[in-house]
């Protein structure tokens, strides 16, 4: 029986599991582990379950110990559970082949490459993945085959966009039946539109669909969960549950760190924002000393064991000494006085905090600094506070950028058109693709601004960022090929050169001292190297080891960091900064400066 | 009434708003096509990326693409005769080829041919 009274973690969700279960939340809150544990628990109840990852930076493989691809595969050790991964890049390749494959023999090679080029844009990649997602929601055969389909989704902003696309595209296709080619061959458009509408019906039906908002007992993730709850409501997706992952109870009251850790969580849970307090009985998942990996780990997560016995923990060398903070990194950037610093990494690792700390430190040293974010769900202003001299805080807001871009295109290109032309142009600009392009232009402008000042860019989570960088490459090719039209802006033309110039762009990979974030950062580093961008350094954030806890569970958790700290230092990074865990996320210029200079508590 | 087939190169969308920059000529042509349709002429527009099959099944178009490469498109076929290749025609040209009446030519921008004024073909078509 799946009952809440036994105290089984996720019991509430499991007892009321609908056919479709979505797990969403800020990166790093444990979406993949809770989604996987749910899928395993449902399968253990003799249900047939499909677990799907739609995250471009999925770590499902690592958590479950199987290689998931486009075709569902069995998970060894769990009867009835299959797993698959919708990889956007892979989906785009399949999709391209489906379009051009039949014409390889009839059309000239140059035409084939033209089509392939067109179908490589960021927008097409997104659509290809989206179509696969929609197919899963609307395929009746799949619905017959699986009692539950569990989605481990991409980080919140991206997920919401994904979920809102059916209505966005349906509306767009109604007013513009010619459509945009990003959607694929026109012959399929009608059928596709029907599937989008069907998908929307499924998502809005509380009998069939539950969205599990996963959060940690921290202010940032909770705020993001509230935003997600509200936006999902607006899309008509009202059946939601709250899951709080990593709830900790201190076992020693002489460890201020442990007490602070517990208090912080309690304070957050007691004062849940109004948008979340209506979600009755959140499922609480206890904090575990180690990340559950593999099927036994996931099962144990739902029936937690007592914490490990205390053991003497010798701090890791990388967390000690003066060089451990951000000051060495700041020294070098300060010297050049200009250029771009980008913080990259999986969502939730503290990119915004690191970016803000570095920006504040450089501004305090008297350098003109701009701190900018491209993350749709970022909170830079809250983190920095106000009144830091030399520091300007800006944000690339997709909605505002889209409006501004639309207006400028209508003004520039529209001036050369007659009335009918302007009307058509305005209609086409309502395409959801316009946002991608608008954000891209803003990104290029931000990068260009670093010619005479220091620009610190807090980027969006990994997958999205990669698509952005990839877009810059395909853009370059499109610009090269373009024969008519408006001249491209100098910022977009020089973007790639700037990003690949180590004297101009310094990428900081931000990670946590845990398995998945480190491996994802390493994979991101590989991708960046392939794109000609060599990351300057690594920042290991929220290290318990650096904060020296006494509580046995926290000390056990601190000891698990060592192998990852060693791995970062020895295998991945040339410059490393390790930042200690803090009870309160640093807010305001004073705290950020303390973090940046590496002073100890 | 005439039938007009337009073979577009691979475009993100008919007005090009999805690309790196907007080409007003493309948007104007979309408006002209819409006008042509309203005069009763049957107009069909095919994108290389969206309907490659329409290109593949017309040997005239594939031959043109083999010969002229990337410069072949866009191509316009009126009543089975290739009228235009390598650029978009003006509203006046469309009217001329189809017998449609126009009081208002399209704006000068779209009316400027690149090198020649015969749309890459002879006065009687290609």
Automatic annotation (TrEMBL), chain B:
Disordered: annotated segments: 97-126
An MF annotation (GO) of this entry: DNA binding
InterPro entries per record: Arsenical-R_ArsD (IPR010712)
UniProt GO BP: negative regulation of DNA-templated transcription; response to arsenic-containing substance
NCBIfam families: chaperon_ArsD
Protein name: Transcriptional regulator
Record-linked Pfam families: ArsD
Species lineage: Bacteria, Bacillati, Actinomycetota, Actinomycetes, Kitasatosporales
Superkingdom in the source lineage: Bacteria
């Amino acid at each position: 029986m799946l009952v809440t009274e036994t105290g089984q973690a996720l019991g509430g969700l499991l007892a009321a599991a609908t056919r479709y279960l979505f797990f969403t939340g800020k990166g790093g809150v444990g979406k993949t582990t809770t989604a996987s544990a749910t899928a395993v628990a449902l399968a253990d109840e003799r249900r047939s379950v499909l677990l799907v990852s739609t995250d471009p930076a999925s770590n499902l493989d690592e958590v479950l110990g199987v290689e998931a691809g486009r075709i569902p595969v069995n998970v060894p050790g769990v009867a009835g559970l299959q797993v698959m991964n919708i990889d956007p890049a892979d989906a785009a390749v399949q999709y391209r082949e489906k379009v051009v494959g039949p014409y390889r023999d009839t059309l000239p090679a140059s035409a084939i490459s033209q089509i392939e080029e067109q179908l490589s844009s960021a927008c097409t990649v997104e659509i290809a993945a989206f179509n696969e997602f929609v197919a899963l929601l609307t395929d009746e055969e799949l619905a017959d085959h699986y009692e539950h389909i569990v989605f481990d989704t991409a980080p919140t902003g991206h997920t919401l966009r994904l979920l809102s696309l059916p209505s966005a595209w349906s509306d767009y296709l109604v007013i513009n039946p010619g459509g945009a080619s990003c959607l694929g061959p026109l012959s399929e458009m009608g059928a596709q539109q029907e599937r989008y509408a069907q998908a929307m019906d499924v998502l809005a039906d509380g009998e069939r669909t539950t969205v599990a908002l996963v959060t940690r007992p921290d202010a940032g993730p909770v705020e993001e969960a509230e935003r997600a709850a509200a936006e999902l409501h607006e899309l008509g997706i009202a059946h939601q549950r709250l899951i709080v992952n990593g709830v900790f109870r201190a076992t020693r009251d002489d460890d201020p760190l442990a007490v602070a850790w517990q208090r912080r969580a309690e304070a957050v849970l007691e004062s849940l924002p109004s948008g979340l307090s209506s979600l009755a009985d959140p499922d609480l998942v206890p904090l575990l000393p180690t990340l559950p990996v593999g099927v036994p780990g996931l099962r144990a997560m739902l029936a937690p064991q007592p914490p490990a016995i205390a053991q003497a923990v010798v701090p890791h060398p990388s967390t000690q000494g003066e060089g451990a903070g951000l000051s060495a990194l700041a020294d070098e950037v300060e010297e050049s006085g200009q250029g771009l610093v980008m913080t990259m990494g999986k969502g939730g690792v503290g990119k915004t905090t690191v970016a803000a700390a570095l920006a504040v430190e450089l501004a305090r040293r008297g350098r003109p600094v701009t701190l900018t974010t491209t993350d749709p769900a970022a909170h830079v202003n809250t983190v920095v506070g106000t009144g830091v001299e030399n520091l300007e805080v800006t944000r690339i807001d997709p909605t505002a950028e889209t409006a501004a871009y639309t207006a400028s295109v209508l003004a520039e290109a529209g001036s050369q058109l007659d009335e009918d032309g302007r009307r058509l142009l305005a209609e086409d600009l309502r395409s959801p693709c316009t946002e991608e392009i608008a954000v891209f232009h803003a990104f290029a402008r931000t990068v260009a601004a670093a010619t005479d000042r220091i620009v610190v860019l807090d980027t969006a989570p990994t997958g999205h960022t990669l698509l952005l960088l990839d877009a810059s490459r395909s853009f370059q090719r499109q610009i090269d090929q373009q024969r008519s039209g408006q001249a491209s802006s100098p910022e977009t033309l020089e973007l790639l050169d700037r990003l690949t110039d180590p004297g101009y762009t310094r990428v900081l990979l931000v990670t946590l001292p845990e398995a998945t974030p480190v491996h994802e950062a390493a994979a991101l580093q590989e991708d960046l190297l392939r794109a000609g961008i060599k990351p300057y350094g690594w920042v290991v954030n929220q290290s318990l080891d650096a904060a020296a806890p006494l509580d046995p569970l926290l000390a056990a958790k601190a000891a698990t960091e060592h192998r990852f700290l060693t791995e970062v230092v020895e295998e991945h990074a040339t410059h490393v900064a390790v930042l200690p865990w803090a009870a309160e996320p640093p807010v305001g210029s004073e705290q950020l400066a303390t973090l940046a200079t590496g002073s100890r508590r | 009434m005439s039938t007009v087939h337009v073979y577009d190169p691979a475009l993100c969308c008919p007005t090009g708003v999805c690309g790196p920059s907007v080409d007003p000529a493309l948007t104007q042509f979309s408006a002209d096509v819409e006008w042509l349709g309203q005069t009763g002429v049957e107009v069909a527009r095919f994108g290389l990326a969206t309907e490659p099959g329409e290109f593949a099944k017309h040997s005239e178009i594939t031959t043109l693409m083999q010969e002229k490469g990337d410069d072949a498109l866009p191509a316009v076929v009126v009543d089975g005769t290739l009228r235009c290749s390598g650029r978009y025609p003006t509203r006046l040209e469309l009217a001329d080829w189809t017998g449609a009446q126009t009081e208002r030519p399209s704006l000068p921008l779209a009316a400027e041919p690149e090198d020649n004024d015969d749309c890459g073909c002879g006065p009687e078509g290609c």
